[in-house]
From TrEMBL:
Name listed for the protein in its UniProt record: Response regulator
CDD domains: BTAD (cd15831), REC_NarL-like (cd17535)
Similarity-based family: Belongs to the AfsR/DnrI/RedD regulatory family.
Keywords: DNA-binding, Phosphoprotein, Transcription, Transcription regulation
DNA-binding span(s): 1-98
Coiled-coil stretches: none
Single GO term (MF): DNA binding
Keyword DNA-binding set for record: yes
Occurrences of domain OmpR/PhoB-type (ranges): 1-98
Domain Response regulatory: 288-404
Native source species: Microbispora triticiradicis
Length: 501
């Protein structure tokens, strides 16, 4: 069986292996047939769309050659004179014969448009549909008009699926975990009144009446600024009902979680778990990660990385420091990936406020340059590390896991800049009241050693090292391991020439 994927880079897969579909134009022929939804596409249309304006004299034979090679790739075991079963001749052209569930875009559209039996079934279908997305639809053919039109149509269906999923979850009484997703959805698509309705209703049911009215004010501003219109009748009625605290707005009693696919983003908030504890066994809860960056492209890339890593759960996205603070309060993440430069409230100010709260999450700062002037101030504020936005995905994942485990991870480019700031210090001066063993431990932490590496170096149990580091932080009035790095360089306990530093 061949599976066709169009919700992202276009590809065909057979028995778990990606098929070689040839060059860009040859792939475009198959993608165009897929977009037709099983209907025949005339050869003349294929020629006009592949070579707009002046097609070559051999265009017809070229198309026929493409089709022949595609058939061999899709059905390698077919006998030479046996009729094709997937890419078939359908005068005056060709058609793609495949089952609805064999093409992700067909399956997606079927799920979104199907009638559903109640909110639980709707929620399950929308989760399944949205789970098929791997990126912008038909990502390899953006320059072709038919692909652009199809991508826009499918993306509109995706937005509808997001809103239908949220509406179903609200009808089931599942509110709190919806808010970050709806906040991001409404901010990204400010002219969609349904997005604002769902966000305002979710906020109201979460006991945040003021924030619900604030969301509707933002909707009104967006519509007036962009279109010169006021809120539509539905949002106006909702605003009046919120002001009157109308009884019909109250959340229904939350239903059971059955019928929701694993990984659903509408699951209830997890119970409190001590921070700094990483899941160590199968079945342990995933680490909850929040992204804060003003660039949508960066957030999308980070989301792809996190979604592909087992044990990590993206719980929200913010585009400025103010949103990050609010989402931390609402979602209680374990780790925040925070851009250091953001509008309205920058990452450094937001990190300070987040880390000043009771039982704060770990905060990892992201920066474009290792020479950012705010690096030192952020470490003093208690962030758990730095990564460059250009870092490899495994570096980002390592930073998240290191932060939760109590380690500090600094990108080498960032570390080099920080070290240079202390290059002139020569006179060690350890804080008063610390033993020689404490000073040795600070030096090892400053050199980037993990608890396991320190345990191997000192020949002591790893658990003992973790306890000693915690006691040392408490004695020095520090909140995070990374601050020990700052202290070591400030006091001259580690210098740029120290091995391993």
């Amino acid at each position: 069986m061949v599976i066709f994927r169009a919700l992202g880079p276009f590809e065909a897969i057979s028995d778990g292996e990606t098929l070689d579909l040839g060059g860009q134009r040859q792939q475009a022929v198959l993608a165009r047939l897929l977009v037709a939804g099983g209907r025949a596409v005339p050869v003349s249309a294929l020629i006009d769309e592949l070579w707009p304006g002046e097609p070559p004299a051999q265009a017809l034979s070229t198309i026929q050659g493409y089709v022949s090679r595609l058939r061999r790739a899709l059905e390698p075991g077919r006998a030479p004179r046996e009729e094709a079963g997937i890419l078939v001749s359908a005068p005056p052209g060709y058609a793609l014969r495949a089952g609805v569930e064999d093409v992700d875009s067909w399956h997606f559209e079927h799920l979104v448009k199907s009638d559903h039996d109640g909110p639980a079934a709707t929620l399950e279908r929308m989760e399944t549909a949205l789970g098929l997305w791997r990126g912008p639809a038909l990502a390899g053919f953006q320059e072709l008009m038919w692909a652009q039109a199809e991508a826009m149509r499918l993306d509109e269906l995706r937005l509808l699926a997001v809103e239908r999923r949220a509406d179903a979850a609200l009808r089931l009484g599942r509110t709190g975990a919806l808010i970050p997703d709806l906040e991001a959805h409404a901010s990204a698509h400010p002219l969609r009144e349904e997005a604002w309705r769902l966000l305002a209703l979710a906020l109201y049911r979460a006991g945040r009446q003021g924030d619900a009215l604030g969301a509707l004010r933002r909707a009104r501003e967006a519509l007036r600024d962009e279109l010169g219109l006021d809120l539509g009748p539905t949002l106006q009625r909702l605003e009046q009902d919120i002001l009157a605290q109308a009884g019909h707005l109250d959340a229904p009693e939350a239903g059971p979680a059955s019928g929701v696919s694993p990984g659903a983003r509408v699951a209830p908030a997890v119970p409190d778990t001590p921070r700094g504890t990483e899941p160590a066994r199968a079945g342990a809860r995933a680490l909850r990660v929040l992204i804060a960056d003003d660039q949508a492209l960066v957030r999308t890339g980070l989301k792809v990385i996190l979604d592909s890593e087992p044990g990590l759960d993206l719980v929200g996205e913010a585009e400025n420091g103010e949103q990050a603070i609010a989402l931390v309060r609402d979602t209680r993440p374990d780790v925040v990936l925070m851009d250091i430069q953001m509008p309205r409230l920058d990452g450094l100010a937001a990190a300070r406020r987040i880390l000043a709260a009771e039982a704060p999450p770990k905060v990892i700062m992201m920066t474009t340059f290792g020479t950012d002037e705010n690096l030192y101030a952020a470490l003093r504020a208690g962030v758990s590390g730095f990564v460059l936005k250009t870092s490899a995905p495994e570096q980002l994942i390592a930073a998240v896991r290191a932060a939760v485990a109590g380690d500090a991870l600094l990108d080498p480019a960032v570390t080099t800049h920080l070290i240079s700031a202390f290059a002139g210090r020569r006179d060690p001066s350890a804080p008063e009241g610390l033993s020689d063993a404490d000073v040795d431990l600070i030096k090892l932490v400053a050199r980037g050693f993990t608890n396991r590496q320190i345990a191997m170096t000192l020949d002591v149990p790893e658990g003992e090292v973790a306890g000693d580091v915690t006691a040392l932080l408490r004695a020095l009035g520090l909140v995070d391991r990374a601050q020990l790095v700052v202290l070591a360089y400030e006091r001259g306990l580690v210098s740029p020439g120290t091995p391993g530093a």
